[in-house]
Every structure is written in structure tokens, then in C-alpha cells.
Amino acid sequence: MDSPSNATLPHGFLLQGFFEFPHLRPALFLLLLAVHLTTLSGNLLILVAVASVPSRPPMLLFLCQLSVIELCYTLVVVPRSLADLSMPGPARGSPISFLGCAVQMQMFVALGGAECFLLAAMAYDRYVAICHPLRYAAVVTPGLCARLAVACCLGGLAVSLGLTVAVFHLPFCGSHLLVHFFCDITALLHLACTRSYAEELPLLGACLVLLLLPSMLILASYGAIAAALRRLHFAGGRRKAASTCTSHLVVTFLHYGCATFMYVRPKATYSPRLDRTLALVYTNVTPLLYPLIYSLRNREITAAIRRVLGRWRSRAV
Fold first, then answer.
1. In whole angstroms, what is the distance from residue 130 CA to residue 113 CA?
2. 255/259 Cα distance (integer angstroms)
3. Does the pLDDT of residue 221 top 70, yes or no?
4. How many CA atoms, within 13 angstroms, populate the side-chain half-sphere of residue 312?
5. pLDDT tens digits for range 19-31
6. Which of 33, 76, 155, 160 lies in disulfide reach of 110, CB 3.0 to 4.6 Å?
7. Which percentage of the chain shows pLDDT scores above 90?
């Protein structure tokens, strides 16, 4: 066992990935590659579709930013995982430098945090559209959307930097083997030598900022929306207003549900192998579902995608 004094080795860590399952790795590689390419294609298709719309309402601009975040989110984790799965031999793990691990964790948290703030901004957009429709064009302007987009990114970046500095100042013990396929927070905290609750405070603070505050804003927005829908006497208008919120609510529940289950719990409940399996789902499956949810539920996105696909077919013919 390494002592705490030399725990933060300059050469970094070993990512175990799925090296202990040599017979499953080829199938897992093909499955992840297919999911990754589908996710990239879906988000790129949404970006191209929105770019083809001559006049873009604010919700489409938010969807563009969400697609960009999801693209970067998967690119931070999945390509390295695929490279590790393609490595031959029963290696114990794939080495990653101390700095590389810190950068990967920081980017992962920053993008996830930006998405948390963006979902709150999208909830505010829905609130103004449903509760104050006559003032919507004057309140939710392209300038406001741009400022909110920048604020979401800067907020996620600030929290991720603070959390990364706090985690990588901890002493790490043992073989520096991360039972994970990327540098996730829970895997790193599991290796920390300290056994007090002090090392969990930065993660708790980050969860409060990234999860609790945006979720309160989302709940407040949808509370006001629900009150406004109850006052509507026209059932068709109530259904139309509710349908505009469905896709956002589904994505919000998926994102916040996965993040809360993974990170809002004490260190004593961490299970490296279980956390690795759950991380495989929320880093691959949920980014795949988001473009499907929005493309199926948003009429403007659906129409724009059909126009883009129609142009591609006509050029191919």
C-alpha cells in the first residue's frame, strides 16, 4: 500500500475498464460503437435541421446547445472507452496520466453541469411561453438566449474547476486502479485514503449548485405552468400547452434522476463495479435517447428533419 505522502503519483492511474471480461469485450465494443455513432448522428442531424430553419424560435436555439453539449459529453468519455476495448491482451488496465484524468473529470462535470443549468433555462422559456404568451417575444429574445447559454457554460465550468481541484488534492492509496472506464468522481473518491466525511463536502456542494438550485427553478416554473393550465377552459389549448413541455420534462427526469442516484449518496454506499455499470448506461443510453425524444415530440424539429432528409434523398437520386 502506498502511503498518503506519496499517494498522488505523477504517472496517474490505471483505468480497469472492462479488461476482466475478455470474452465480452468484442461484443461490447461493437455495441458501444453502434450506440456512439447513432448518438453522434442524431445530434448532428438536429443541429443541421435547426440550422436549416430560417427563423429559429428560442426553444430551437436551446435544443441546439443541448445537442452540442451531448456531442461533447459523449466525446469526452466514449472514444477512449472504445480504444481501451479494442486493445488486445489481458492487460490489467489502461494507464491515464494524473493530468489527463483531472481534465477528463473536469470536462465531464462541466458539460453535465452546463446541461443542468440549460434545462432550467428551458423550463423558464416554457414558463414565459405558456404563462405570458403575449410578452414572450419581448422577454425571450435571441440576446437573452445567448446570455443564458453563456451563463450555463460558465456556471458548469466554474463548479467543475472547484470540484476537480478539491478531489485531486486528496491523497490516493493502493494500486491506483480505478474500477471504471473513465475518471468518474465516485471512482476517485473510492481510492481516497481519508475516511472522514470531509472529502465528500466538495461533491455535496457541487450537487447543491448543479442539482438542487436548477431543480428548484424547474419546479417553480412547472408549478406556475400547472396553475396556468388549470385556469384554461379550452381542453385543446391545455393539451397543446402540455405537449410542449413533455419532451423537456422527460429529458429533465432522465438527467436529474441519473445524476442524483449516482452522486447524491454517502461514500460508504459506493460500489465500484455497480457504479461502472450504471455509468455505462447514463454516458451512452441517455445521450442516445435525448435526440429521439425531442425529434419525436417537437413538431418544428420533426418538420426540419424531414426537410433535411428530403434534400439529401433528392441529391442522392
1. 26
2. 6
3. yes
4. 10
5. 888 888 889 999 9
6. 160
7. 27
174 Rama sector, left if φ>0, alpha if ψ -120 to 50, beta otherwise:
left
Round to whole Å and give the CA distance between 181 and 279: 9
Q: Which value, in Å, is the radius of gyration of the alpha carbons in the chain?
A: 22
Task: List Cβ neighbours of 196 (8 Å cut-off, separation of 6 or more).
Answer: none
Cα atoms in the 13 Å half-sphere on the side-chain side of 31: 9
H or E element, residue 39: helix 25-51
**Grid cell listed for 65:** 446547445
Residue with grid cell 457504479, as numbered in its chain: 275
In the numeric block, which cell numbers belong to residue 114? 452546463
Taking the C-alpha atoms of residue 2 and residue 8, their distance in angstroms, rounded to an integer, is 9
Q: Among 202, 177, 204, which residue's Cα sits nearest to residue 190?
A: 177
User: DSSP secondary structure string, 150-206?
Assistant: HHHHHHHHHHHHHHHHHHTTS-B-TT-EESSSS--HHHHHHHBS--SGGGGHHHHHH
Mean pLDDT taken over the chain: 83
pLDDT for the residue numbered 122: 92
Angstrom distance (rounded) from CA 248 to CA 63 = 10
Q: Are 32 and 279 in contact (CB under 8 A)?
A: no
Cell 435526440, located at residue: 291
